[in-house]
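Example 9 (inverse folding). The structure is encoded as follows.
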């Protein structure tokens, strides 16, 4: 079979022939139908510092098949698989829990102490076929498409950010970063009854997408974000919620200025290193709450998201701007640099 492989510590990926995997006792084998490019894949493609840090934390061994956001049909199950069956349509959770540790046994399997990362600590899914432990396979409802299923993993991050914020109808929100997760968060916040959502980015393409998703789109390089926030929230002294989806240290220089007293910040983006924050002014005196998150609650977030998609309450496919086959992998990653929402790979029938 063909797969998109990271062969070593260098730029780019190789689209190459690899051995078709066989499921181990607790694994399932899927025929991949749809997959999506995530920020992690982009950083693996470039192989900069953040890729190196993440790869070493989660035990990367070269060569490995990249990709972790996907959906497909189960075509074979391992001898010990109990809950999944051949023919089922599934999407994969990226965080592979051990099911044995304190976190796993106390309802926090998404932040397992021995966590594996799909497509990093083992082969991923940018391939014709992929294996995964059965405990990361989420069965898709019949009326959820493979493309939607492949987006459950990233959309689940946005979903969980909204869940953790505890936002109420009528509240205001500021979203830093209008990539796929930021855009999906905007959609969910509006679906949850947020009165206003301000979407901020420095990329005009993304600001336009934020506007088309119903947010007040702000290009922070060209517009005065502080003035816009002040104007819109003057009666309450700032926004009720901030969602940080960029990981940019620059954002934190002014982030808390936009938050009202007793407001709440949810941090999703990962800055590359430590950044200075004035605890007294920005957190204590402000009475601010900060909630960090990594991954989706297994499986609460998935079920909630699945219900929203299944009931057509939100259309997560609106973030998809480009579709390719795996054989066009170089073209797909070039498109990332030119500007894109979510980029998807769809099963390349030419190979069969
Ligand atoms: Zn992802
Ligand atoms: Zn665990």
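The amino acid assigned to each position is listed next.
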């Amino acid at each position: 079979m063909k797969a998109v492989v990271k062969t070593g510590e260098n730029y780019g990926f190789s689209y190459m022939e690899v051995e078709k995997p066989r499921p181990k006792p607790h694994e399932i084998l899927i025929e991949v139908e749809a997959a999506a490019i995530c920020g992690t894949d982009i950083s693996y493609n470039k192989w900069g510092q953040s890729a190196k840090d993440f790869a070493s934390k989660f035990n990367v061994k070269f060569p490995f098949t990249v990709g972790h956001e996907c959906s497909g049909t189960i075509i074979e199950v391992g001898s010990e698989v109990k809950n999944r069956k051949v023919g089922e349509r599934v999407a994969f959770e990226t965080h592979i829990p051990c099911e044995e540790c304190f976190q796993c046994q106390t309802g926090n399997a998404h932040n397992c102490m021995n966590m594996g990362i799909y497509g990093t600590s083992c082969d991923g899914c940018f391939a014709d076929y992929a294996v995964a432990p059965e405990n990361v396979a989420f069965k898709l409802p019949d009326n959820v498409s493979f493309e939607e299923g492949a987006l459950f993993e990233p959309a689940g991050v946005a979903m969980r950010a909204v869940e953790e914020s505890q936002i109420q109808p009528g509240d205001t929100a500021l979203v830093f970063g209008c990539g796929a997760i930021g855009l999906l968060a905007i959609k969910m916040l509006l679906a949850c009854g947020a009165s206003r959502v301000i979407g901020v980015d420095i990329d005009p393409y993304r600001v336009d997408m934020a506007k088309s998703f119903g947010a007040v789109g702000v290009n922070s390089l060209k517009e005065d974000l502080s003035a816009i926030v002040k104007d819109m929230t003057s009666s309450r002294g700032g926004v009720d919620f901030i969602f940080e989806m960029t990981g940019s240290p620059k954002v934190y220089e002014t982030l808390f200025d936009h938050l009202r007293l007793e407001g709440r910040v949810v941090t999703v983006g990962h800055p590359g290193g430590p950044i200075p924050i004035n605890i007294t002014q920005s957190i204590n005196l402000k009475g601010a709450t900060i909630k960090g998150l990594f991954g989706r609650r297994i499986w609460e977030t998935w079920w909630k998201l699945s219900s929203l998609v299944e009931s057509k309450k939100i259309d997560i496919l609106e973030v998809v701007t480009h579709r390719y086959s795996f054989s066009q992998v170089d073209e797909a990653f070039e498109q990332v640099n030119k500007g894109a929402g979510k980029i998807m790979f769809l099963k390349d029938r030419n190979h069969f």
